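From the pipeline queue, job 12 of 40. The input is one protein chain; the requested action is below.

Action: predict structure.
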Amino acid sequence: MICSGGAVGATVASFDLVTPSTVEEAIASLRVDRGASSAVIAGGTDLLLDIDDGRSSPTRVISLRRLPWRTLDWVNGALTIGSTLPLRTLEDDPEVRTRLPGLWQAVHAVGSVALRHRATIGGNLGRSAPASDLVPILLALDAEVDLVGVGGSRRLSVDRFVRASRRTALEPGELIRSVRIPESRPSSYLWQRVRPANDISQVAVAVSFSPAGRAWTVAVGGVPPRPVLLPDVATLLGRGAPSETSLRAARDRAARTIALVGDRRASEEYRRSLTGTLLERAVRSAGMPGAP
């Protein structure tokens, strides 16, 4: 039995901790109890806070830290990231920074250095927060999620996997094994927040340009109920370096069409203006690839 921390005077939460050493053991532990009383933990930077605050009260926590998924592999230009790889390892990889600069920027934007030593890409996707820094760039990079579970293996695009705030396409008995990015791309991830290290973004914009497809992809985060792709905006950017006219048109379309709301962190009007501004800056910083 494990007891979590919590504020002074608060009720101490307790749960059984399961630490499988193999994928088979992990899947077997999911078979034992598929109910809401079980929770899966990778880095624990989000779930443990929920447990301490009483927002989640599992009786069993299945830790994935012993599984052989702390991997980072480049094969034929594609990058596969194991779901339990600490974000700090991803951030420190020079190839990631060079070949996928937008991904590096998004990882660097997650919390603090200490948090990135524990946080994982699988945990980030599994929790699926609307203001996630990683989901927008993974959308823009056409990333896919590899899943494994009692029913076998399958692969989904990030766009199909993330359904809403805290809701994903994970079926009972499934785990996130890895995330696959199909190619190196000029890319950028820009955000605006009040306090850079410990706040969530008011708006975040991710862009990438596919050398193979000669096409842009644009995604926006900080949008309820989940980060979204903006295909119409991407089309306006064209099939290479956009003209100033195309860039202005894309900027205006992004600011007008996206579903935004005002709250205590920013007004709707400010968020719309910010979306257009960040889009223009992100496209420029992605490298403005030459037209064919």
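Job complete. The chain has a mean pLDDT of 87.
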